[in-house]
Amino acid sequence: MKKLIGYKIKTAVFISGTGTNLKNLINFSYKKNSPISIDLIISNIKKAKGLNYAKKYKIEKKIINLDNKNKSEKKIINILHKKKIKLVCLAGFMKILSKKFINNFKGKIINIHPSLLPKYKGLNTHKRALENNEKFSGCTVHYVAPKIDSGKIIIQKKIRVSKKDNLKTLRIKVLKIEHKLYPKAIKKILT
Ligand code: GRF
């Protein structure tokens, strides 16, 4: 998928939590050389902190709990089509999307994961990396495929894990590079 000159690709960000990546992507979208605009925020959690950025930056938000996956995903697909969304960025979105949903937006859904995939797919990545005394960790932006954290890798960034690192320091360290990597990945696939 390549961007047309002069147009920004309409993008939706899906979140469940704090939304630091969302905030970072919004700021990135304002840059002149950014290929995207953020036009929609979807959260499955009503109280997700990241939803505050919808208000702050005047971006439309939808809260869809996904308890009834089939019905909720249909709803999301309708909204995405209606708003002409062409890219979906998952950023700390804690629900697994169905194969049907993913195939509907094939090659247009990407995710950021806080590990050097294929290592540490799923949850508690930092805890597992520390328990295994990994010398390196990092983050990965990848296309979303039906199997969790298994889609084609777009870009990765490695950092060194120090002996002094704990859950908190490692999480902060990795988040910091996530904020650099997500925009870079978007530029890579769209420009
Ligand atoms: C990030 O570490 C991301 O890689 C993972 O969930 C976390 C979300 O953080 N998928 P935030 O909500 O963007 O601050």
Global geometry: globular
Beta-strand segment tally: 7
Low-confidence stretches: none
Mean pLDDT rating: 96
Ligands bound here? 5-O-phosphono-beta-D-ribofuranosylamine
Q: How far from one another are the termini?
A: 9 Å
Q: Which structural class should the secondary elements be placed in?
A: alpha/beta
Q: What can be said about the biggest beta sheet?
A: 7 strands, mixed
Layout of strands and helices, then pairs:
Elements: E1 9-15, H1 20-29, E2 36-43, H2 52-56, E3 61-63, H3 69-82, E4 87-90, H4 99-104, E5 109-113, H5 125-131, E6 136-143, E7 153-160, H6 167-190
Parallel strand pairs: 1-2, 1-4, 2-3, 4-5
Antiparallel strand pairs: 5-6, 6-7
Helix pairs in contact: 1-6
The structure holds 5-O-phosphono-beta-D-ribofuranosylamine.
